[in-house]
Amino acid sequence: MNPTQRQRLLALTPRDRLETGWDELALGVEYRCVRGPDTGMAMVRGRMGGTGNAFNLGEMTLSRASVALHDDGTLGHGWVAGRDHRHAELIALIDACARRPDWAERIDAELMAPLARELDAAREQTSRTAAATRVDFFTLVRGE
Amino acid sequence: MYVAVKGGEQAIANAHRWLADRRRGDRDRAELSVDQLAGQLNLAVDRVMAEASLYDPELAALALKQASGDLVEAVFLLRAYRTTLPRLAETVALDTGAMRIERRISATYKDVPGGQVLGPTYDYTHRLLDFLQLAEGEVPEPARAEAALEACPPILEQLDAEGLIEREVDDGAAPYDITRDPPDFPVDRATRLQMLARGDEGYLLALGYSTQRGYGRNHPFAGEIRIGQVEVEIVVEEHDGPVCIGEIAISECQMINQFAGSREMAPQFTRGYGLAFGRNERKAMAMALVDRALRAEELGEPVESPAQQAEFVLAHADSVEASGFVSHLKLPHYVDFQSELELLRRLRRAHGEPQSGGDEDSSEVADGGSGAQAPADTHPPSETEQVAP
User: Fold this and answer.
1) Taking phi first (over 0 means left), then psi (-120 to 50 degrees means alpha), and beta for anything else, what does residue A8 get?
2) Which residue range(s) make up the domain with A112?
């Protein structure tokens, strides 16, 4: 898994779940924040007709953090929708640790893989709920 | 001349204290939590986010609670909070085609890839009050199909092999941003869409309705309505490609409208577009109708109805601006009003005393005075007389 894929998965995972998953890894790593965590906004853009020129739809809250690991100074970065500083910090921390070859494999296997499965399962569940509201048309034949 | 008037601090403090008491209501009842509002009054929360132009369900629910459910006040609170935050990024334009669909319908094609998906809708309910809601009852889990939805590609893109529907193509133009520079009329379509997206739903609904009733008719069909979650991406230095920061709920409406064609263009269907934060179907539909109406000039149609007049429509669409200006009438106008009183007394005295000019003249002056509304204020009496009738 590359850093961009990890960032996506971590941003789409609820913070509580991330917290427990991180604790279970028990890497015991020390770090400090080098930027943030802080909150601002992103201007969300849409496209006319879905595919045309861009326009500004409105803003959304966005939090970000950057951390450095104590022992070797490896940097990690995190961005997440909303105002949860801890969520952004956790993403940055996991990003930093996963950039270290000695930890990357464990993080991907023991944290990222289960998170990916859970996200898929949750999405499958929503999609099946939507599918239950899909209309099945049938045609009435009138007269013979 | 302005006369400074002080006072009222204690009255204001006590008024706000009473307001807080009213908001809390009966202390024997549990207090509403922001979580409950976000979870159970989610359509109100979505409307606040859309019109405040800030996507954050928790903050919108907080605003709703603080405003005791007054939507326009809640929009104002959230819009004001927005000004305290720095802009960190612009997102990659949303790919609504990749939406995780919870509702997707088309009124123009029965059989579409992915099907007609109703989602959690109030359509087809009987609009009878459900008295069971007065009692606490168990709500069953939603039904789930055996299999997930098939892909639901955007309908207008899929089904236009003949070129009968106008194409929307990105020419890479950077959109104008009304939060950075105030709109300067006439404005382009990107600016219009930004202003409509934050416009008051009731106002846009009324204008959209007016086009259906014949004031700027544009023969709409709901080509596709999509509601669901879309992933949001931003571009950052630290990653090569765009990175996902989460997902947001979005409502999209593609209207298909008739167009007679012009000298340059063959007749074809044209499009109106609506996009709104959250589950805001009615807003997205109204926005699409008004977007199309505002394209009248571009499409060479006569501009003769209110919904087609961009400056009129857009300058009055924002509930924060509108309620602010209407509300300012509550502020003390003691001195203004005194001067009006003085003027009126003078005119009435003049009216009572027949002068050399005769009765007609003095009654004309009085008409000018009573017709002294905002635009007339600045005109000399002779002009006012022409405007007033």
Assistant:
1) alpha
2) 3-121
